Amino acid sequence: MVEDSIAQAQRGVLLADVLARKGSRVKRAIHASAFAPRANEHVANGHAANGNAALAVAVNALDGPILSPGSLTPGERFQLIDAIAALLEGLYTHLPLKRARYGVDPIQRLHILRTQVDELTDDQFHFELADIVTGLRDAHTRYVGPAILEGKVAILPFLVERVGSPDASQYFVTHVLDGAGLDATFQVGVTIEYWNGVPIDLAVQRHSAQEVGGRPDSQRAWATQSLTSRSLRYGPPPDEHWVVIGYRTAGTAGNPGVTREIKIDWRIVDPNQVTPPAGAVPAAAQGRDLSRAMAVNPAAEAIRQAKMLLFAPHALTGEAPPAPPRRSKGRGRAAAVNPIQSFLPQTLQAKTISADGELFGYVRIWAFNEGPDEFIPELMRLISVLPDRGLILDIRGNPGGVIWSSEMALQLFTPRQIQPTRFSALATPYTRGLAGLDGAAGEELRPWKESLDAAIRNGELYAQPLPITDPADCNRYGQQYGGPVVLVGDATSYSAADLFAAGFVDNGLGRFVCVGSATGAGGANVWNYDGLQKSLFDSSMALSSLPDGAGLSFAFRRATRSGPSEGLPIEDVGVRGESYPMTADDLLFENRDLIAHCIEILKAEPFSRLKATVNWTTRKIKISTVGLDLVDVLFDGHPGSTHRLGAEPGVTVSIPQGAQVCEIVGFSGTEVRQLRRIGL
Known about the structure:
Elements: H1 2-11, E1 13-14, H2 15-18, H3 25-28, H4 52-60, H5 74-90, H6 95-102, H7 106-114, H8 122-134, E2 142-144, E3 153-155, E4 158-165, E5 168-176, E6 191-195, E7 198-199, H9 200-208, H10 216-226, E8 229-231, E9 242-248, E10 259-265, E11 267-269, E12 294-296, H11 298-311, H12 314-317, E13 336-340, E14 348-355, E15 358-365, H13 372-384, E16 391-394, E17 400-402, H14 403-409, E18 422-425, H15 429-435, H16 440-445, H17 449-458, E19 466-467, E20 485-490, H18 496-506, E21 511-515, E22 524-528, H19 529-535, E23 551-560, E24 578-579, H20 584-588, H21 592-604, E25 609-615, E26 620-626, E27 630-635, E28 638-644, E29 650-654, E30 661-668, E31 671-679
Parallel strand pairs: 15-16, 16-20, 20-21, 21-24
Antiparallel strand pairs: 1-11, 2-23, 3-8, 3-11, 4-5, 5-6, 6-7, 6-9, 9-10, 12-17, 13-14, 14-15, 18-19, 18-23, 22-23, 25-26, 26-29, 27-28, 27-30, 30-31
């Protein structure tokens, strides 16, 4: 049963047991009790561990470097070092920036590592490679550990989130896994005060030094997330096998709560047991390989899948989400919520919110990990059934995905022409060589070839900035939602989510509310060693396979903004918005204050409406409007008629014979407020 596989996957295996050396009785014998639930641990549906043999198989499958001692020959170690050095020096688009900004030299560190291959254990060798790459503070550019670690995430059965200013932070538990066997007082709403004996805020700040992120707020945000979840393929496992947490129970007026302590084991889970591999590249779309149109933090995507497994398994199975809990103490939800079924539940969530007698829409874009052929139609369907009084678009925690999906979505919310983000490759002999090849890699870089060649004589660091998303695709569908829109992001909105925020701001779609000073600041198109190797097969620049499926994901083309922000970088800067500090009520009561804040913004925005209904029998279009002064009607791009709207806010127009496309443009004063494109 699906429920059984989810329950087993949620339990995972203890990190302490997996890290036990080969030959220990845990790994050899797998005691009957080795992976049995703790005495007070609830087992879903009354099942035990679905057989200790199954869990023994799961543990044995984790044998290999990082999780237990393995072996690479000196030649294989040299091969890994040289391959990563070649890609970083020849293709890594941010190398000049990172050297200047952080004073790091990954190429020299890799040369030094070459002299140490005989001195390090396998684990130490992998950790050193990961540390060299992580030192670039670029979540796009990651050392990819052995393939056996695909999807494996070390996780604690709860989530921690932060509220308040950097100088006055509080950390709350916002989710607890049902059946985790934790003390009953350790529940949603408790405040974390100590982490392994260290004051929690100090622990987060120290941990942030090991995290990616180009700004203090983004490093702190990633560190808060990785307190309880670490992708094992993109970094080492936690040093500790368990954590000891000092917490304070939720208090009431005049009662500050009780201080307690709890010990919780790290476990390893694998969402691939119940869902396709985390972070898998979507299928090809529109005749193009989407693997080269990606902008994603691969570690954050793996962690997102693990969080869904533990705290939102309905998103993996396609079932309806459970009703949100109603909490006591007189602080219920701020507004009535009506969820709308999503056919992409891992990616899109939509609901109607009732506030002060009015209805507003809310769409959470969890990721852009679907290709545009799937993502755009589903997003269009969802917004078509939402109220047009105003819409909240929420991309907090979005790790990115397909650039096309991100940038093509913008047109749905504005009558304006969308200008996509621009990308450019670092001008090196390696990139010039790629651009001159036949085949997939050469074709991908063909538009940049002339400027890459010209960079030699012009002394340019980068090729000409060009869009990856075709501007025609960015404007193919036109506006679908006519009400005002507000965007919400945070310091972990990354990569394709950075691009979405940049496009939202630069194309004037609406106001941008940001938790933190700016978005996560991932400004690049991401490639990986495996994909590059496949595209270069049988070419003069062919790459060899790396041992154990190890590799590198890397920022290949840097992104710069367009429109009024033309040329501004995104990497390490992000997209700034109107700063909003999360509150305790936001964390514990479904973003109550944040949603109320956004609704006040929407109410203050100008409102208009345009609805066009086609009568195919009479070949007429009935246009009804609210808040508009004038409507222009165009057929196949040519002026058809202009209508000034008086007491009757509507008009009917005839469709000329042979017309293919009708565009209806609605004005309020001189401002274009509405645009509808109708295929005839």
